[in-house]
Design the sequence.
């Protein structure tokens, strides 16, 4: 049970800690420092395997660069950038709609067929995201009044959806920890100029170096980056893919609880509506996926 609960807890905490970093560490700098810490922790366990697979790493260098840009350098940077103007709960709820964006990305870019339940699920989840974007007031839609952070998180969610499809459609043959270390290293190379431009032109105050800063960087570098990944792998190995995906939906709940405890930010009514719509939409989409898998097995057995 621990390996199932830990990833959404760590990811939910990442949104809250990212909000706590506002005014302490600039967002793109936080993303850079996060992955430097994570890579330094991972390298002692992965460097021998990286050397053993250097031929495969060279062969797939372009692909690894693209996936590192979409995930390490872009998605996480956009998430921390979003938290400068949006609440942790808003960003977590938008992030919770990722399965539906993956579904839509597959349909639009890769012509992956979508069933009726999936379409209904996508529509409900998009309504939930819309409720967040307009803060529960449809009048904001007519005025085109959106919080920039919500739009940043929406862009990050699309980046992650594209990243997921690229991983699904191309197998590199690299062990998981080797691919992760390579993506971290390449992502850091992309994140370095982003952080430099932020410090030069972003208008943010320099990093405030204190114990709180060290705690923030240590948390985001260790828990959502590495421990969540390790627990997720073990959860899938022990329980299969379906159950861990369901537990992913706990991340907004943990964000809600941690936001109230650590930031004193209570939820609004539209948060409840958005959460219900997003989770119902994901459940319907997963029902469609499970039904498709069952039909495939039935057809195979009858053949």
Sequence:
């Amino acid at each position: 049970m621990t390996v199932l609960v830990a990833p959404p807890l760590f990811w939910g905490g990442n949104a809250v800690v990212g909000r706590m970093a506002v005014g302490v560490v600039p967002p793109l700098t936080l993303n850079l420092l996060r992955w430097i810490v994570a890579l330094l922790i991972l390298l002692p366990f992965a460097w021998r395997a990286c050397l053993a697979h250097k031929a495969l790493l060279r062969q797939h260098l372009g692909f690894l660069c693209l996936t590192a840009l979409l995930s390490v350098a872009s998605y996480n940077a956009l998430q921390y950038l979003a938290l400068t103007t949006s609440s942790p709960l808003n960003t977590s709820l938008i992030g919770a709609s990722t399965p539906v964006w993956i579904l839509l990305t597959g349909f639009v870019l890769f012509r992956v067929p979508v069933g009726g339940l999936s379409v209904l699920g996508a529509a409900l989840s998009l309504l939930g995201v819309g409720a967040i974007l307009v803060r529960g007031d449809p009048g904001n839609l007519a005025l085109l009044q959106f919080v920039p952070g919500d739009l940043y998180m929406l862009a990050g969610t699309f980046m992650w959806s594209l990243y997921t499809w690229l991983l699904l459609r191309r197998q590199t043959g690299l062990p998981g920890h080797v691919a992760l270390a390579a993506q971290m290293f390449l992502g850091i190379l992309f994140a370095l100029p982003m952080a430099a431009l932020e410090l030069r032109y972003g208008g943010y105050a320099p990093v405030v170096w204190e114990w709180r800063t060290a705690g923030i960087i240590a948390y985001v570098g260790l828990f959502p980056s590495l421990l969540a990944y390790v627990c997720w792998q073990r959860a899938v190995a022990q329980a299969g893919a379906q159950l861990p995906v369901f537990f992913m939906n706990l991340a907004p709940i943990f964000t809600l609880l941690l936001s109230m405890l650590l930031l004193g930010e209570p939820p609004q009514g539209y948060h409840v509506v958005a959460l219900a719509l997003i989770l119902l939409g994901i459940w319907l989409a997963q029902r469609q996926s499970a039904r498709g898998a069952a039909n495939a097995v039935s057809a195979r057995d009858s053949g």
